[in-house]
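Incident log entry.

Two folding requests arrived from the same account within the same minute. Monitoring flagged them as a possible duplicate submission, but the sequences differ. Recording both here for audit purposes.

Request one:
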Amino acid sequence: MTVRPPSRLRRLAVLGAVLSAAAATVFAPAASAADTVPGTLSDLRVTADTVSSTVVLRAGDKVLQVDPASVVATIGGKDAKATVAAAASQARSTMLVIDTSGSMGASGMATVRTAVKQFLAVVPKDVKVGMVSFASTSGVDVSPTTDRARISQAVGGLRSQGETALYAAVQQAVAALGTEGERSIVLLSDGGDTVAGLKGGAAGDKAQRQAALNALAKAKVRAEVIAFKSPESNGTTLKQFASVGGGSVANAANSASVGAAFAAAGRVLDSQVVLTLKRPTGVLGDARIVVTGTASGQPFAISTPVDLGDTAPVEVEASVDTRPLVEAGPPPASALTAISPALLYPAIGVVFLGVFAIGVALVNPSFQTKKSARIEAIEGYGFGRAPTAHKQNVNTAAIGQQLVSMGDQIMEGRDSTTKTMALLDRADLPWRAGEWLVLRFLAVVVAIAVGYVALAALPLVGALIGLVLGLVLPPVALKFIAKRRSSKFETVLPDVLMLVATSLASGFSLLQALDAVAKDAPEPAAKEFSRALAESRIGADVSDALDHMAQRMDSPNMRWTTMAIRIQREVGGNLGETLRTTAATLREREMLRRQVKALSAEGRLSAYILIGLPIGIFLYSTVVNYDYVSLLWTTFYGIIMSIGGIISMVIGIFWMRNVVKIEV
């Protein structure tokens, strides 16, 4: 049996359906209006018959595709025939204008590198991308190009320092874009210009700001502005650039929002079409263009004023310097004003110190060398020679001698001089103490200059590192050379003793045997035994001469040999047999030392790997992912971790060194 609903229920159901349909009809337009995609018309160009522009839609987190059949346009209230073409059918270029002033900080630069990487990942391949950076000065780092790797490389080298030359940077970016196709800038800054005000006061700041705004308007360049929040934020100036350039302003308070804003700016370039409108008859002068349509199912409506009488070509200020720093190389350094004050003043100081030292050496008679004084005194006793006034020979050799003499006076009487001279003697370097001091001074000056130039972003840190390296490396190198020569002497000593023993067995005296060693033994033994033989020939005891050689080479084996020779000469015996026994003992000790070295090779290799692996990974990560590694010195916890890691590395190095080091 079928149950029919009562008539009252049927009437209520019909009434509900009617009300639902009416509500849908009433509220559907409101919902549609709320979902309208914002957009602008960029690069408006007027001719006698047409008005062309680029439709730019901003959907935020997605790319929109315009439906050409849905596009309807009016000019001055009259229908205008619209022709839609793909955005890639025209040339497109954009300039990244990056603020690198001191207020951005190291964390701000890390944010920029991450954001630009996101921008390059979404920007269409046909769009040329360039970059302008600005601090106290501004310049075109990379001209518009499709080589994304060059942009990434240039952004990776940015460092924050100095003031904010915002107005000059905008004008340089506009000029670098040229006049062809749809052009835009993506401006990231934390505030207004600080350079123009310093140079020209309030009036100069106003004039430079207006010049930058006029450059955007005349060139018809779209400006997408990202306002990075900081204590120096000045959003009014940035909004003016976006308004004149027909773009938008995105406020970013952290790294994630900056990255999202850059990615959105990249997607805007992929949500474009070229629009050409046929001018309707009877519409002249100022008018309004209205364009409607749908993109990826969403409606858009754009309304913008246009001067139909403005048929002049796009203009770019020719006076703006657009030299590409990366492509064309550095500017010529012939002009003194081209040198940065941060580099000019230290350079002047170094030159002044050098000239002062040379001048003092030339005019002060106390710096005259002893050799010159003796020659001058002897020449005074020559026959027929009248006393002549003192005349200094100003040449390179004389200056060098005087500087060395100064070094000798400084080194004289110091406790470290004796040790330094012993190392120089052991390393077989024919330098005096004064010459060594001059070389160390030059090493410090050169290291400071190299560090200052190499770390231009942090010149004081570079100079400090250069100072440390200049002070540490020369003595370390001297000790290394001396130790290497001493070790080589120890290696050939057993063979030398066998040669002496063989010569003694052949009937030679000890001095004759040493003379044979000086002639036939390998270096450095030949030279050292030759010096010992020379000492004995001028009156020194042969045992004392050999003992001096042992001290000079810091050779414990030679000390034992000298002791054996002394004992034999005092108590008698067969010296040749004694030397053979000593040589055999030294060879056995050397064999044992090499065996221990071979057995501990695995441990030493493990120590080298454990020490070098963290350093190598750090350097590799710095190259491939600088943003990630830079957290170690741009954040508080990163600095704490870095300090702890360095301390742990130092402790580990000393611990592993003691573990694998075995004395024989």
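Request two (distinct sequence, not a duplicate):
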Amino acid sequence: MEGTVLDPAGGAPGATSASVMHRARGLWRRRWVMLGVALAVTALTAAWTLRQPRIYAASTSLIIDVTAPRILDGEVKEVMGEERSNYWFNKEYTGTQSEVITSRAVASRVVDRLGLSNDPGFLGLPANQDEKTRVQALQAADAVGLLRSRIIVVPGKDSRVMNIGVEDVDPKRAALLANEVAAAYMAENQALKMRVTDEARTWLEVRRDELGREAKAGELAVYDLKKDADMLSTSLESRLSIVSERINSYNLKLTEVRTRIAAQQARVDAIHQLRKAAGTDETWAEAVPGAKDGPIQDMKMRYGEQKVACAELSERYLPEHPKLLECNRKLEVVREDLLKSLANVVRSAEMQLVEVKGEERNLNKLLDETKAEAFVVNKKAIEYGQLQRESDDNQRRYEDVLKRLKDVELSGLLRTSNVRVLDEARPSLVPVRPHTRRNLMVGWVMGLLLGLVAAVVLEFLENTVASQADVEEGLGLAFLGVVPRMEGGREQGERDLYVHRSPRSAVAECCRAVRTNLLFMSPDEPCKTLVVTSSGPQEGKSTTCINLGVAMAQSGNRVLLLDTDMRRPRLHRAFGVPNDFGISSLVVGEGSLDKAVKSTEVPNLFVLPCGPLPPNPAELLHTRAFKDLLRAASEKFDRVILDSPPLNAVVDAAVLATQADGVVMVFKAGKTDRGAAKRALRSLADVQARMFGAILNDVDLRKSQYGDTYLGYQGYGPIQDGPKGAKGGVAPS
């Protein structure tokens, strides 16, 4: 079976074009509210405008140059600055002058000159006041602030023209005030210039004296430093040059000595290595550089000759022979002399190395002393340079201040101004305020906006179910259709059987559309049992149930209407059948279903009355016997429609919803509260009831909010078949 089991409290997600159109139609429906608010606001605006005093304006035009005309030499500059061509500078300058014109200083000059603080007409005081009250009002009034509030400064576009406007209730006084404000501005501008010049001259005189003392102290400090450093006869640059030459000379000699040390050190290292490699050979020193000098070569020859002689004697004589012994003694003496000479050569090389290293130490000491002296001289040079720069800077600043002081004194004697009057103000007899036409237009627009806000607020405060959008988007239910307001007789029976007796009416057509929507929701598995309920009483639930049964019966189906409202049953009265035997009797086991079912004047439509009212309807509907009764009825009839009590009143409808194939809600258009509808749907959701949808009942098609949506029901065929001019409504449940 088709249908939905959903949470009705959340509504439909998001807005659709249908809801937008619904809101738009709601606003259009309240167009008279918007129009009324707009007219009321416009009328109030007109009344307020007519009560306002007439305000007149006068304007004086000034030409404001950045600087005054130059009379002195261009090198003599004034204190107030110089002219520039920068766009942002000119813009800021114009804004500054506008602030000066509207300043309290300028307004005070005008008030004092014209005596405005004692002018009741200017202050807006009533003329019929007594003297005491008038004096108190004059003392309490702020004439300067009042004048400032009336001054309007408008700079000329792309020019140096400044328009000074003043508003007043008297056109002549407005022109007078405008001219006086311009004159006061020029006087204030000149006074400001003189005041700044005097302040600058005072400051420059003080600064001149201070810089004079600082320059003199700097010169004395330079002299004292030169005296302490003995730089009176020799300049500092000469001393630095002498020390630098000495350092260079010492560095050259030190480089030369270190070269000799390197060579001598290599010679001594070679001698030590040769001695270590010779071992016990006493003649190793022959390989030392310098051992081949003449005397040593002579000793070597004598040693060789003596050695040859001893060798010859050893061949002729025995070792103890006196000649051989004498020869060997002489050989030993020559050998010792040779070895001593070779040793002296080695010691000479070592002593030369020691001597050269001593020379290097002396040179390093002299170089260090000279460098220390150079550091001292450089430090004195730094101190001297710093003092000299400070002295020169003080002297330069002293000269600059002295020159500027003379310029300021000279420029202070000038009385030129950079402001000139272009056009004086003249009285104008045309008021500038109030702007009657503009105020009315603004009032009309504001009224329309306020009316729109009021219409929107009323639309959103509307909390009833009144349209298809409210059903689908606000409650999340399928919309089955509408039932128009019934136009027929005043009798209850005529309204209940309106579809049967007026088959060509809009109500009948709408009921057939609802029937079609219900049947097409599940064409393969048609619903057998259907509960029709509402959120509260008096919403047309029973009448809708009857008319829906009539529409289904007209399609050829055998339809049974069950009056399950065992608290306020009404179906038996609608069809004129007795209520002494019915559902309550069958549930307790009295009689049979065929006996209890009553036929009606509508073909294929039958009704099963409620029967005697039981004390416990909810428990009775929850019994096994009622379920069997419902199943037996669904087997004998094509459709079984249950007319149940309202959901928010009793729990009977929720109990019936669990036993039927589905539920159809009936909402009275413009009357059913959305909160009540959501509570009713929540109770159905809690029991997992299957919802087929909702029917919007008692829709007045003549209202503009429904005319566009359901125009077809009004424009196609007759709307009613009932008596002409009859009035009616929806039958109470």
